[in-house]
Amino acid sequence: MKSMRIISVKTIKDFWECREYRDAEQSLRAWFFEVKTEKWKSPHDVKKKYNNASVVGDNRVVFNICGNKYRLIVAVRYDLQIVFVRFVGTHNDYDKINAKII
What is the per-residue pLDDT for 57? Predict the structure, then answer.
């Protein structure tokens, strides 16, 4: 089974390149390099690795980034081993969206 493919890394990179969010770079890079080596088959596999992650429905997973300062939402296609980055932002930004459908 192949490892996870992450689409779109550009979304993550654009976030940390913003001057006020540069503190997120190390945590986001660590998340990226860890996840790309995974072989998740189900949300249970995600929770085994990231017990603080929240599975919120429609294969969406919310990760706490940088000591829970930021949120990262991904949609996972377990059958294809693809992680789609749907959102990265502050808690305030997160509170304005619906994580289940973004």
Answer: 85
